[in-house]
Design goal:
- This protein has 129 residues and is mainly α.
- It has a single domain (18-128), classed as Alpha-Beta Complex (set domain protein methyltransferase, domain 2).
- It is built from eight helices and no strands.
- It starts with 17 loop residues before the first helix and ends with a helix.
Length: 129
Amino acid sequence: MVGEEGAFVLGWDEVLTEEELSVTLKVLCMSEEEFKEYKEQDGWEDDSEEEENSTLSNEALSRLKIPCKKLLYDSVLLTLESYRSDLKAEQDLLNNKEAYEKLSRREQQALHVRYGQKRILHQLLELVR
């Protein structure tokens, strides 16, 4: 359902893999009866035009139903736990010029990537809280 990577791509303003996330949330938040009906119909064939044209912007994420928000919130927490350090540790390292300059160029780039990822994940936590 989420492709080979098994991950969703989030940006600062919206979900970039919105179709995959939307379908995944719908399926995972279904009751057993709703899921049986979904399987029998081979998915949703008659989605409303509004759903087709909507994007999973930050605003839309904050309006999700509570079960979907909880699922996203818990997933983000699990993702953040997979990192060896937290957002504050990354920020401290970025702000410590002496320690930062001791890192190789590759380590500096990795630090910036991790820091950006964690900031986006923390933003998502706030949106679905």
